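quick one before i forget lol
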Amino acid sequence: MQLLQITLEHVRLHRQLNLPLASGITVLEGANESGKSTLAEAIHRALFLPARTAGAALNQLRTRPFEADPTISLQFSADGNTYQLRKTFAGSRGSVSLSDAAGSVLEGERAEERLAQLVGASAVRGGNLGRLRERWAHLWVWQGQAGVDPLSLAPATIDQERLLQQLQHQAQTIQSGFDQQIQQAIRQRWSLSHTDGGREGRAGSELDRALKAEAKAAENLSQLEQDEHAQQQAQRDFAEAASALQALDVQLPLLKQRQQLQDQQQRVQEQLSQWQPVLQRGEQAAEHLQQLRHSLAPSQAQLEALQQRLPETELSFKAASEALDQAIAQAETLQQWMRVLQLQQQADQLQALAIRSAELKQRAEQLPALEPADLESLQQLERSHQDAAVALASLSTGLELTATDQALLLNDQPLRAGDALDLDQDAELRSASGGFVLQIRPGGAGRLDQLRQTKAQLDQQLSAALQRWNLSDVKAAKASERERRELIAEWRQLRSQQGAIAVDQLRQQIAALPEPPKDADLSQLREQLDALVPQGKALRLQRNQAEADLSQQRQQLEQLQASCQSDLQHQTRAQTVLEEVQQSHGGLESFRQQVSRLQQELKQGQQQLQRLDEQLQRQGVHRLDGVSPVAVQHQRDQWLQQRAASRALLESQGERGLQEQLEMARADLEDCASQRQTLQDEARMLNLLLQTFEQEQAQLSESYSAPLADSLEAYLRCFTKAPSRLGLRFDPRQGFVDLDWQRDSGVAWGFDDLSGGTRELLAAAVRLAMAEVLAAAYDGVLPVLFDDAFTNVDPSRWSALNAMFQRARERGVQVLLLSCDPNFSAAIQPDVLHQLPLRTSTPTALHRRRSAA
């Protein structure tokens, strides 16, 4: 079966998409969320999802927002014909049509049935998305599932029955028809008594009915045995109830008498509990009142004496406080006068500093505002000028005329014997008669001109700079800068001495203080203040002593007042208690007699209770705590009910009839057990026969699993040239199991023990090998789709992966690759490359396909 073309209309984000698919390798490249996975699901759902499906399966196909019903058209070849499938998913309004190259058209259920025959699997009805993804699970690699072992999937999801048929055909080890008939007959007989999982007693089977009949017979026997036990228990219960009722009829009158006596005792005890605390409080109040009358008189006399002495002590404290306040006020005045004189001295000093600072600032402003950088610039100009002059002098020529016998001219100026000159420019020496002419060119002529120009420029720059600062020379500039710097430093020092306080602030502080006498002197004021210190200390000691005496007398007075007040309150409370006893019980003595009578009555009742308890113990009542006539009456009623129930049960069940039923039930159970054992032995015999056939079939299957292993090893050789061995075993019930890969290291690694990238490669090789084997059953071609499947595979293996795909396309496998990585797409050599969003298809040169046969 080969997919030829897919067309999507209003499927998720695809409003209209038409993609031709190559017979070999097709790559669909696009960024994430560009709709690649939508295309994979659309092809899969067109093949396996009925058009009238509703629910989540339909909602996932619709556009957002909804515009029109999603429609999927798929062109494919199968069974020697070309088909056009068109499905519109719209719930109950959905439609499907399937047409072939001859023009024959099927619609509705007939189209779905024919499609199921062509793809080799039935459609998934009800919209079960989990079951839907199981269809073609060995051919459709969903995103994130590339590292799953395909052989671990259920046999039905990987088309195992057709796979075995093709492997048997290739291995040429097909079982004989007679063996298959025997095995089929045994399996049919086995399936009548076993579940698919191999458990005995399949629902509805004869063995299942025998097991249930045996269980029902056992249940019936158990129920009859329970009835027999209940009858025996009823006989015991009747006898027990009769004996208990006989004893209770004697105990109940005694218990009622005891209950009445207990109630009376409780009332007397409650009365005593109420009166005894009242009597105790009355006796304590009488005793306390007598004590208070003896202790209150001395305290009152002492209180009156303290109240008389208190005014004198208060006058002494007041006089001492006034003398101390006067001394403190005088000392504060002297301190304020001293503060005024100190502030005046500080203000005068700040004023002098301000005048000096202004003078320094004025002198500094009169000097040129030369900074150290400006002075350095002048000195640099002077040094450059001197360097130019020295260089010019070094290139000049010395001329000295020592003797001559005729008149000579130098640049038309007379030159006499003994003249000596330094020439720094061209000159002409000739005789007055013109008899000879000598041209003199000192040094290099060009170098001298350059030095003269440089010296002239430096002369101009130095003169301009000195003129700008109004200075005669650099020496004067240096002296002016030093003097200005010293003035500024002294001015800053004066500013720091002045601080943050201004003279005006000091004047304001002076104005806020009292003015001292005009002839006041700071030292004299300090001497007066020192003289006041010992006087103030003495006055403070005197005031503190007076305050302590006053506080002590007040504390004693308060304590006596509180003590007397407390005693008076206690006296009042005691009198109140005695008055209450007088009103309620006629006085304290009468109250004592009433309490004594109640105590005597309580004692007599206790003796009567003791005699009743002895009678009850003789009647068998040994524990009387919590026993009441009501409880005993309730117990008697329960025994009456038990006796009546036991009598009714015994009358309803005849002992002879129950025994006959038990014998019949035991015989029925033995018959059922015998029949169950016979059927169970037969089922186990069939299971043993089937296991024997399956073991033989498993041994036979090892020969026809070789083609799959050989094909798989051929794909794996695309990744490694080193010797390797693939482990694979077929189990008749579990399918292909124990997949492992032993490479040159000598260690056989199970699938789950491999790295993520290796698992993806091995799983892809298994899928391609299975598709290659199955292709013969599907018209020589089967598609395999990979959706972003090789995320863990190292890019260095992409070329080997491409070799595996090329091998597959040559052996009847149509490869569909969906990728978001352009580099991966470039490493594969596809027949057709599509890019999303769709622009143009980029087909490559098609390779000649070899027939799968």
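fyi The first helix runs from residue 36 to 48.
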